[in-house]
Amino acid sequence: MNDLISSVKMPFPWKKTPLLVFFLLFFLWIPSPSSSQQEPCQSCRSLTDNFNKGLERTQRENFGGGNTAWEEEKLAKYANSETRLLEVLEGVCSKSDFACNQLLEQSEEHVERWWFHEQQQHPDFFQWLCMDALRLCCPPGTYGPDCHTCPGGAQKPCSGYGQCDGDGTRGGTGLCMCQTGYGGPFCSECGDGYYEAARNDSHLVCAECYRACGRCSGPEDSSCLRCKRGWMLHDRRCIDIDECGTDMAHCRANQFCINTEGSYECRDCAKACIGCMGAGPSRCKKCNKGYRRDGVKCLDVNECAGEAEEPVCTGANEACENTDGSYRCICAEGYVRKEGICEEDKPPDAPEKGFFDDITDDEVVVLQQMFFGAIICALATLAAKGDMVFTAIFIGAVAAMAGYWLSERSDRVLDGFIKGR
């Protein structure tokens, strides 16, 4: 049975794995701070729950051989055999569950001991392993290293209206975390903003007070005993405090205060203002740069209409465009800004074309015909040994082909010759 559980839990050839890969997998398997704080008791409970599921899954199986009667007679019964234990352990932890595999490795001897020697006397595997052997869990209603009783008693911790911190584990503070509406060290009274609607020996019903009441004796707005923040008690009623009319409001510079029920809001002043007493340009304490006072309002200065103290947009070919509280200089129509200067917007000069730059496919065919015609005429002239009839035919053919080609290009041809192309 040596390394029984290890053989089930470690299916990878770790010794053959490169060291870098090993450390990478190790850090990937390290739980996050939240998951690392998962109670060891919870991990143990999950392990034992999966173990019990494995027992249910294998309870009707056997060794798988052909002669089960002989196997049960000569070997240990399958129900308590090492074979079944291995099959159960295969499904206890997933390969990626580092906490479960680590706990299973640490509890290997305990699992084997329970399986072969203790399960008859201690059938509750969770209690035997997690509470008694590993001391990771406590009975319900208790907490801490020594399993102290939770406030309110183990049978009904926190009066049944809250949760004992660390309940059922070897950790926690034992303090009661009460449900909404309940309070006190034992969650046995109503919390702030709630009142006792009903109570008997076993139950307490807490109902919500009127929204402004911190403590109350009933649901009415006249039953307030203490007010929530932002309200003040007057004749057993909670009335709103206007923080904006007192020193209680704390808004930044260039903000104004708006009172709300039980609180207040800070909102930004208008762009035209430096300090304000409310919303809009008519509530400014002082006008911002780019604005001027006109009665009670701060209005925009139109710098483009000459209202500015100094000239604007003095660059060549520039035009002024007014904006809210300022202006901007743009190039006049027909001009674009290049390297900070407004220049005339005109397309770049196109390079002059040569004589053959835009020749068409049809013209190429004509040129080919002229070339081959000239060759044929020249050969015919040579064959006639200078006969004037063939010479005349040659010259006429060349002239005809040249005229046909140049008829559509005469203007460009003349222009090309004149310009020397």
Automatic annotation (TrEMBL):
It is an enzyme of class 5 (isomerase). Residues 146-188, 300-343 form the EGF-like domain. Pfam families: DUF3456, EGF_CA. InterPro entries: DUF3456, ECM_structural_protein, EGF, EGF-like_Ca-bd_dom, EGF-type_Asp/Asn_hydroxyl_site, EGF_Ca-bd_CS, Furin_repeat, Growth_fac_rcpt_cys_sf. Its EC number is 5.3.4.1. SUPFAM superfamilies: Growth factor receptor domain (SSF57184). Residues 1-36 form the signal peptide. Keywords: Calcium, Disulfide bond, EGF-like domain, Isomerase, Membrane, Redox-active center, Repeat, Signal, Transmembrane, Transmembrane helix. One of its GO terms (molecular function) is protein disulfide isomerase activity. GO terms for cellular component: membrane. It is found in: Membrane. It comes from the Eukaryota. Disulfide bonds join 178-187. It is a multi-pass membrane protein. The chain crosses the membrane at residues 389-407. It catalyses: Catalyzes the rearrangement of -S-S- bonds in proteins. Belongs to the CRELD family. Protein disulfide isomerase. Promotes the localization of acetylcholine receptors (AChRs) to the plasma membrane. PANTHER family: EGF-LIKE DOMAIN-CONTAINING PROTEIN, PROTEIN DISULFIDE ISOMERASE CRELD1. This is protein disulfide-isomerase. It comes from Pogona vitticeps (central bearded dragon). The gene is CRELD1.
